[in-house]
Amino acid sequence: MADPINASPTPKPLRRRLLLRRLAATAAGVIAAVGIGACRHPGPQPGAARTIQFWTLDLAPKFNTNIQGVIAAWEQQNPGYRVVWTDIPWGSVERKLLAAVFARTAPDVVNLNPLFAANLASKGGLLPLDGVLPAGAPQGYLPLIWQAGRSAGPDGQPEQFAIPWYLTARITLANTGLLQQAGYSAPPRTWAEVPAYAEAVRRRTGRYALFVTVVPDDSAELLESLVQMGVTLLGPQQRAAFNSPAGRRAFAFWTDLYRRGLLPREVVSQGYRRAIELYQSGELAQVGSGAEFLRSIQTNAPQIAAATRPYPPITGAGGDANVAVMTLAIPRQSQVAEQAANFALFLTNAANQQRFAEQARVLPSSSGALQQLRRNLEAEQPATQPEALVQQARLLSADTLAQARVLVPASPGVKRLQAIIYTQLQRAMLGQISSDAALAEAERQWNAYAVGRFAGQASR
Questions:
Q1: 209 lies in the same domain as 253
Q2: For 18, 185, 280, 423, which has the most beta carbons within 10 A of its beta carbon?
Q3: Does 28 fall in a domain?
Q4: Is 213 inside any structural domain?
Q5: Could you tell me if 37 and 183 lie in one domain?
Q6: Domain interval for residue 430
Q7: pLDDT in tens, the chain (460 residues)
Q8: Model pTM?
Q9: 436-442, long-range: CB within 8 Å, 24+ apart, which pairs?
Q10: Is residue 393 assigned to a domain?
Q11: Dihedral, CA atoms, 365, 371, 373, 377, nearest 10 degrees?
Q12: How many domains are contained in the chain?
């Protein structure tokens, strides 16, 4: 299945993330065909108006029974319509989606992450949902998660283009043995506490406290940390807003940690997978990941797993945690938009989300489903200590959603923004320029890009 969190320990999810990034990077050029095609709707073909084409990403065959059951229940309630489900492997999603766009056979409901949905929406490829959703539809979802479906259309104005589906919230998994050696009973809760903690871990254990990569095409965790530190990334007309007092403090924070030797040297050259390797080998005090990653540690590094405990994620002063979201969107080409929206709402209602979340071991975006999932987790009676830890991690992950949101805006070009910021921050970390100069250069490069990329868009 599609794993929405950007911190995943295995090669396959890494390839998935890289593929989505390539999609986002190339969307500006190829998605124009979607917008053009959206202006010239073909007449309905015989029988086509009663068929809903539904695409998911990497859910078959593991979740066949679940998805097929939802489809059968919806079809029973909506006689005269049928849903044709197509599951797209991640390795071929780009080719299949673009082929469907050019052939004007785009699906009616498609599973996307917010970033790619934003790229489609900005080129007119997605249908704004306000006109097809019933009144009160947002009330069934976690409010901050519902907002993840909002992005800018071709005119630059934000609209609701997607319905949230399943989620992953990052928590902290920490090695209690290293914490105790460093004089800590728990890892830090805020970024402000990290420097003293990182110094204590390094001085007293010889290991490192944490690994946050600055490789441009890898994890967005560091970019998310800037937002948690009070940095506003983008302002009106998508221009840089990060060269601010908060931005200067944040750049200096990461530059100083690295120059003082409190981060592994590889953060400038290796991605999140290196963090996993270091943690499982006992060289890292903590790692940020989803709750289910604890099972991987238990399999791959039993001794480290025995010392591992789940803790709340590191946040900023405001307490905002990050959440990764998978959504459902309706391409503008759809001839059955109202029925497609009805199906998407049915798929993501409380009962259906709760069943899917239990099977997939993810978190639901439905508030009712989250409440039921939490009750079920509390009622579990694990037979072993490892299972009890996984239960604890999942409960903590569910609790995190109370203050979780998508921290980095799903703006077209945001992966370019990450690449620019990370590249300049690398230069500061390596002592090539000062952190203030790196921030100013990142601002200059982003604005030069934004002038052409967002020309003519209205302010948000």
A1: yes
A2: 280
A3: yes
A4: yes
A5: no
A6: 169-321+408-453
A7: 755 544 333 334 434 444 444 444 444 444 444 443 444 344 445 544 499 999 999 999 999 999 999 999 999 999 999 999 999 987 676 667 667 877 888 999 999 888 888 888 888 889 999 999 999 999 999 999 999 999 888 887 889 999 999 999 999 999 999 999 999 999 999 999 999 999 999 999 999 999 999 999 999 999 999 999 999 999 988 899 999 999 999 999 999 999 999 999 999 999 999 999 999 999 999 999 999 899 999 999 999 999 999 999 999 999 999 999 999 999 999 999 999 999 999 999 999 999 999 999 999 999 999 999 999 999 999 999 999 999 999 999 999 999 999 999 888 789 999 999 999 999 999 999 999 999 999 999 999 999 988 875 544 4
A8: 0.86
A9: 436/248, 436/251, 436/252, 438/251, 438/255, 439/242, 439/243, 439/247, 439/248, 439/251, 440/243, 442/240, 442/242, 442/243
A10: no
A11: 140
A12: 2
Residues across the chain: 460
> What is the residue whose two structure tokens read 């029974």?
65
Query: To which residue do tokens 């905002």 refer?
Result: 320
Work out the burial of residue 173: count CB atoms within 10 Å of its CB; fewer than 13 is exposed, 13-18 middle, 19 or more buried. Answer: buried
Q: Are residues 277 and 357 in the same domain?
A: no
